Amino acid sequence: MKGKRSSFEDADCPIARALGVIGDWWSLLIVREAFAGKVRFGEFQKSLGLARNILSTRLKKLVDQGILRIEPEGAGKFHRYVLTPKGEGLGVVLVALWQWGETACFDPGELRHAIVDRAQGEPLARLELAAQDGRALGVRDYRRIATDAPP
């Protein structure tokens, strides 16, 4: 039996590598809060209720992984955490988790929040898988294959 894996950076699976970058649920919740407009350490701490040392570690990892960047604010004493394009790419992941959570984790009438289109105020359409030609795909309509990419 192999020992505990400490890094997924060389994993052959995109899901494993992505989880290696994100790390844990706190990191995704920090990214969620960044999408909601939080930029300062104190804002993240207040909204998440996370211990300072844990929040500091998670923010550092998100910066090191290129999900967030640090920008100076004011006279340089303070700084902001801002989503990078790589971090913004997690938006669709968060929406997918949200939509799955709406369906799988709440009883009817229990959900008190919604994600809506900023311009129209309408709920987002359900995310769905699509083939290159635009056909809608179900969860059993795709498969993983080996590619010719070098190992």
Using the CA coordinates, give the radius of gyration: 18 Å
Order of helices and strands: HHHHEEHHEE
Principal-axis shape: globular
Number of helices: 6
Taking pLDDT < 50 over at least 5 consecutive residues as the criterion, the unreliable ranges are none
Second CATH tier, the architecture of the largest domain:
Orthogonal Bundle
Largest sheet strand order: 1-2
Q: Please identify which CATH superfamily of the largest domain we are dealing with.
A: Winged helix-like DNA-binding domain superfamily/Winged helix DNA-binding domain
Average pLDDT figure? 90
CATH fold topology of the largest domain: Arc Repressor Mutant, subunit A
**Termini Cα gap:** 23 Å
Regarding CATH, which class of the largest domain? Mainly Alpha
Counting DSSP E segments of at least 2 residues, the number of strands comes to 4
Q: In the residues, how many domains can be counted?
A: 2
Main β-sheet description: 2 strands, antiparallel
**What is the structural class?**
alpha+beta
* Helix residue percentage: 25-40%
Percentage of residues in strands: 5-15%
